[in-house]
Specification:
The protein is an alpha/beta fold. The protein contains 45 helices and 24 strands. The strands form 7 sheets. It has a 5-stranded antiparallel β-sheet. It has a 4-stranded mixed β-sheet with strand order 1-2-4-3, with helices on one face. A 4-stranded antiparallel β-sheet has the order 13-14-12-15, with helices on both faces. A hairpin with a 4-residue loop joins strand 5 and strand 6.
Length: about 1000
Amino acid sequence: MTPPDTSGLEAALRAEVDGEVRFDAGSRGAYATDGSNYRQVPLGVVVPRTVEEGARALSACARFDAPVLSRGGGTSLAGQSTNTAVVIDWSKYCTRLISVDPVRRTCVVEPGIVLDELNRQLASHKLQFGPKPSTHSHCALGGMIGNNSCGASAQAYGKTVDNVRRLEIRTYDGQRAWVGPTPPDERARIISGGGRLAEIYAGLDRIATEYLADIRRGYPKIPRRVSGYNLDSLLPENGFDVARALVGSEGTLVTVLRAELDLVPVPPYQSLLVLGYDDICAAADDVPRLLEHCSPSQLEALDDRMAQLMREEGAYLDSLDALPEGRSWLLVQYSGDTQEDVDEQAHALLRAVGRDEKESAVAFSDDPEREQKMLKAREAGLGVTARPPDDRETWEGWEDSAVPPERLGDYLRDLKHLFDEFDYDHPSLYGHFGQGCVHTRIPFDLRTADGVAHFRRFVERAADLVASYGGSLSGEHGDGQSRGELLTRMFGERLVTAFGELKALFDPRDRMNPGKIVRPNPVDGQLRLGPGWRPVTPATHFDFPEDEHSFNRAVMRCVGIGNCRSHSGGVMCPSYRATMEEEHSTRGRARLLFEMLDGHADSAIKDGWRSTAVRDALDLCLACKGCKSDCPTGVDMATLKAEFLAHHYEGRMRPAAHYALGRLPVWARLSRLAPSLVNSALHAPGLARAGKRLAGVDGARSAPVFAGKSFVQAWRAQGREQPDPADPRTVVLWPDTFTNYFHPAIAASAVRVLEDAGFRVAVPTEPVCCGLTWISTGQLPAAKKVLARTFAVLRPYLEAGTPVIGLEPSCTAVFRADAPELMPADQDVRRLAGQVRTFAEQLVHHAPGDWRPPQLARQATVQTHCHQHAVMKFDADEELMRRAHLDADVLDEGCCGLAGNFGFERGHHEVSMAVAELGVLPSVRAAAPDSLVLADGFSCRTQIEEGGTGRRALHLAEALALALDGNLPSDHPERLADRPPEPSPAARWATTASAAALGAGAAYGLGRLRRRA
């Protein structure tokens, strides 16, 4: 195939399409793969601003004979969302819910709208789109239509194909039409009208007629047949439904521009029954019996292997604790109009199968919160099994086969025998057992020729196995490249020939997502790894101990699940939520780092650590560490970014902000010479603006005000005797830079509360620092030196095992996570990682049993620092607030957007504020005037104060210390907090005038010297 003229194509797209046209290496690298084993670098990417502009992009591509791939969330697991083509990404702009008809229960949507967002907008009508795959927080409806997605709710509502009423489509050669059920008289009218549409309908009529018997005989009669084209939708008994025939065609036939969908009522009540079994095969054996006696809305399964992986990873432990006894479980959910109805459905099933709610292997719940905990364990399957703790690489490839539910147990036994035969040890088996669909990830060796050949033989044998059971190669994720080559084993030559004729009818030039389903690329071709993959193996500053000490393995944690593209909840990924750009998601950045390893001849990134494309993608990474906890496979993009920056700027000048903000502790210490003068200079008219420009700080930001006296200065002035490090009551209060120099009252408050709890407080009086600002700007050799000096100061306490109490979450997280990865062989680093505690952890877990925190009896809006969310967690803080009688609303609104130096750096202010406005700032504005606003992180407090909220956030230590003094004021209680005052206008102008006078004097002196010369 002759490659298209990409330079002319790019120019045409830029001239003709209102959208973002990207043919740069960074964009192409970010879209080079999806959630599958496959990788194909695209020709370019188009992000149309409207559906009509997307259609124009298709026209331009057709003129240049360029292949086209429509893409939504990019989560496909079979390779259908990666291709050497022009990728049209609908997910940024084409996201409208166009109309809703509550009476007919239908809606019309654009292809880029995310399922959760659609259902959120439908909530006021008490309607929803029925199918709900596990990627519901970020999968697009266009992708669901392309893949014929299902999810657990398909037990009640069917597959996507069962919920599509009409589609507006466009063929590669330009034919547009709304299609749907087409009775004979309508078909006759269309065909008689002539033209391309008539040709299509005549061709469909011919295929349906010619292959009628083959379709009726050759399509498995099972709930989860997703493989192959939906030729059965063209049968007379199915209404010759062209829309449904195109669902699941993976963008190989047409482009979907809009869709009319059927909706279902949101069930007002639900209950959940969980049954324990000895093994997963026994659970599968029981499915037909259960279905004889009930019609559940979900019937899901998970096995002991998944439970084991969760326990080893310390993930979803609450979910596991909610499960009954057993080594495998079936989760049976009921929906109905009343609580009595759904409860009775569950109890009726128990009576019918001779089981009892009181059995240890039975759990029943009609508590939505508990139900979600139990279901979360099942929904987490892909993330948990994708990167098991034993560090085996597991892959898709046979991850969603489906058989008749009544034959599921025997199929699983044969599948396990096949695993044993190929020495694929103990993959987890779970899935939608009520419809016979099985999920798994298998430890294929996709790096060596023998391993890839072994993989190929396995999937061929597995395909024959599932066909022998009358099943489907795919029960949910589609065919793509994973199963396209295997379709003949399931359908036979004649039906696969019919697939080819359907493809030729709609796309005779084979330009729509070529190489998928019809004339497919080999199942072992275009692999993301493969025997030809030869990445560089760079030496690194971080040790990456959980990734076999390998930067490459750390990058490869990302398997493309795409949770980083969610729109709400958790922390990950704030920059994506602000920009809606793939390159600004954790996944997109991981893709670019993978390409930077230059493992393939066609790698998009060829300049390694010096890559400006990778640098630019990482530039808007807030280093919030949200991905470290929220990503199902634990990608830590903050650490990867720091490593990249260290190499990218090695031996050359850095951005000014790296010197100004990355070395903040140095400048803060120097501010002690004249803090008032420093504050006046940082806020002086003209002078402050010039200083920010020189320092690389965004002009929209105000400099924080230094305290007149730091906490350590005040501590020294008190002349306290330092307690004995070996005294079990002794704790070291860590004087982090932010608390010490900007908000010293927080440390003073912490001392009061800790002493009230019976502890003796020690404070290092020599300069110490955790190195955070050096780490976040990639100045890693300097960070190691800073940490080494700190450990020398702390050594007596480290040797005595004295607890170290952190007040600033980002600094505490360094000691828990970053420092051990940066200096893994240092014993003091290991000691401190085990001795450092948050303020709340010390008080909740180590205070004397008779101590009670002061009572606040107040509502509080609480923002959790991202690093605390990711590393230390917030459980102890919530417990401490509960004991203090704080009615805490702990926000689930993501990052505050400031994120240390990020929000201060030039060019970041707009994204920083956009992130904040996604949830944190609106929530604070909505807080009652008499409530507390709590934020332990300096960044969070600064963003709240500067974000136009009219509120000032307190540290939890401050709130508790204020409570020691009695009742807080009823209105804006934070006004009691002690904060450094901003310099007066007179002081600011005086500083400007002095600077101007000095400048004029210097200029005059230089002028006289020149004249004398």
